[in-house]
């Protein structure tokens, strides 16, 4: 079922590892909400009236939105779309934003799930990443959220940082397990181009990510979550049974979605489009007195996905999940290619096969990107 994504492009400060689109100046926050509401109106037919099964506020830091701003956005969404009664409605939040007053505000909105960027419970890690919160706030926000009735919580952690010892990584996980948390997302630290961390590593001011160090922590992650009853349903995502992230799962399974806000992506089943990743340009286009058609406005670029691109994307996302890849979802043009190229990985027990469903083994998960790339069909130009 279709989902709606809203990109809120503001943060209090820039995390050293982050390459998402955001601004640390909040001056235009009100104007951005106005523009988002206008884009919702102008894109109201993108999903052709299909009911929304999920709404996701990402960023940036959506928890920077105040009650009035959230109310305006939700009012427009519910005016334009049918939202399923049991829809998953997620808001990403930073720990330092989630005091009791903020959580009480959120309880009076349709938000029923919080995705909280904890990243670590260690001060050294948080300083290395340049997070805006401290270790005490990391714990307090979980306790505050639970006390206010938010039982559908997803927590983010980062492993593999040079400051994160194996002992500290184990402590981070054990801290999570102290709480009744149904969902955990854990990401390996990566040095993305043009980030502060990339600059520091190149200048010798920060140690690069050590693959062996990160792999050991990933191994511990898989073992510890399994022991606690979590299902490893996507490379970076773990959930108690019945608590899979519905919105992200729809991405991984190829469902349509509409993205609103600067840099947001949309997918209708055959084409993909992405909004301009520039706040000033986004605001200017949506504020035009005589609006042009969106097609000619410069708001987004669009591509029609070729059969090969559709196949490659299915391999990339499918292999990373518990659902794997199935032959019936692969274009017949590519089935023979797929079967021939996956055989070496089956022979090495990196890929498991059951009833024509191909999934990564636990060992294969360490090589997910490499295995997928070896299965890609490269088109001749």
Layout of secondary structure:
Elements: E1 3-8, H1 29-42, E2 52-59, H2 67-80, E3 83-93, H3 100-107, E4 113-119, H4 123-129, H5 135-147, E5 153-159, H6 166-177, E6 183-188, H7 196-202, H8 211-227, E7 231-234, E8 237-239, H9 246-252, E9 257-260, E10 265-267, E11 271-275, H10 279-286, E12 300-304, H11 307-319, E13 325-326, H12 332-347, E14 351-354, E15 357-360, H13 368-375
Parallel strand pairs: 1-2, 1-9, 2-3, 3-4, 4-5, 5-6
Antiparallel strand pairs: 6-8, 7-8, 10-11, 11-12, 13-15, 14-15
Helix pairs in contact: 1-2, 1-10, 6-8, 11-13
Keywords:
381 residues, 15 strands, alpha/beta, 3-stranded antiparallel β-sheet, 13 helices, globular, single chain
Nearest-integer average pLDDT? 94
Beta-strand percent range: 15-25%
Residues in helix, %: 25-40%
What string, H for helix and E for strand, traces the elements in order? Answer: EHEHEHEHHEHEHHEEHEEEHEHEHEEH
- Strand order in space, largest sheet: 7-8-6-5-4-3-2-1-9
Separate helix tally: 13
The major beta sheet can be summarized as: 9 strands, mixed
Structure write-up:
- This protein is α/β, with parallel strands linked by helices.
- The protein contains 13 helices and 15 strands.
- The strands form 3 sheets. A 9-stranded mixed beta sheet has the order 7-8-6-5-4-3-2-1-9, with helices on both faces. A 3-stranded antiparallel beta sheet has the order 10-11-12, with no helix packed on it. A 3-stranded antiparallel beta sheet has the order 13-15-14.
- Helix 1 packs across helix 10 (279-286).
- The longest helix is centred in the middle third of the chain and has 17 residues, at 211-227.
- The model has no long low-confidence stretch (mean pLDDT 94).
